């Protein structure tokens, strides 16, 4: 038993060293007593942690997988083909929904189990998806990234079988969906899905992705204006799409619509950009700043977007406005009482934790 305790302390030390955030790296190990000897089981995505645990436990039987491994095969990439795909905590529909992934998003494949695939998204989050993605080899994935695409800019929309909005629908669409461009008419783009389906979407609902990436103009005012487009969207735990949003899903989606990939959760987002409002009197806030709430800065549980005059927009029951000013009719005493700090991402796009789609490795040809 003493030996097993020592092994567990080694596991804990290596996890803390290499995998401090289990949302973006895996280090799931356990030691089991078998036939009167300890055996180390588990899996990790960290090559450094894998090497060190093997070195530190030399002489002990190990059954540790470094993911991805031969179970995944040659298709180490995938692209989401549903408008919104749930990312879940385990390979079960009954498990917690961690996040959502939008149509056209490339993901890294880590594992396969029972018809489910464990994936890593561009923001680093790791979870499981059931169906919903087209597995690709490295060559296929690079070819997909090279091809011209359109991005949906309407909050909601549809793809149709013919260039006619009265024709049969192919699927619903949401803002941020990306589809391959295969042709166009006067009023429609002809598009293809990663799984091979084809359809037409209105030009009024989408733009060429190349133009969108070049023309995105992130300013305090444009960020706020984009956030306001989601007013009334219902709160959904794990939601990152216009079908339903949680608090950090709203900030993440608004950032994505300016070609930026930021971390998934509020407790991760509080680490990006630059700190503002050092005196906590709101005098240093600009529109577009992210506001963080919680028990203390080690326990951030909520995020909002400042829109000016101490007002903010956030996802709470539904996307709505609130205020930190006690004399404002929209005063939110609960969140005012747990306000922690603010961070600015506008103008800080080159700082760590903020990635441009143009430069992100998942999107490179």
Quick recap:
One of its GO terms (molecular function) is cysteine-type peptidase activity. With 365 residues, this protein is an alpha+beta fold.
How would you describe this structure to a colleague?
- The chain is α+β, with helices and mostly antiparallel strands and 365 residues long.
- It folds into four domains: 1-67; 72-145, SH3 Domains (SH3 type barrels); 147-214, SH3 type barrels (Roll); 220-357, endopeptidase fold (from Nostoc punctiforme).
- Helices cover 19% and strands 38% of the residues.
- The chain contains eight helices and 27 strands.
- It has helices at 2-18, 47-56, 138-146, 209-215, 220-228, 247-256, 266-269, 333-337, and strands spanning 27-34, 37-44, 61-66, 77-80, 84-88, 97-102, 106-113, 116-120, 126-130, 133-136, 149-152, 156-160, 169-174, 178-184, 188-192, 198-202, 206-208, 240-241, 244-245, 260-261, 274-276, 290-294, 300-308, 311-316, 318-323, 339-344, 355-356.
- The strands form eight sheets. A six-stranded antiparallel β-sheet has the order 21-26-22-23-24-25.
- Helix 1 runs antiparallel to helix 2 (47-56).
- The radius of gyration is 22 Å and the shape is globular.
- The termini are far apart.
- The mean pLDDT is 95.
- It holds the Pfam family NLPC_P60.
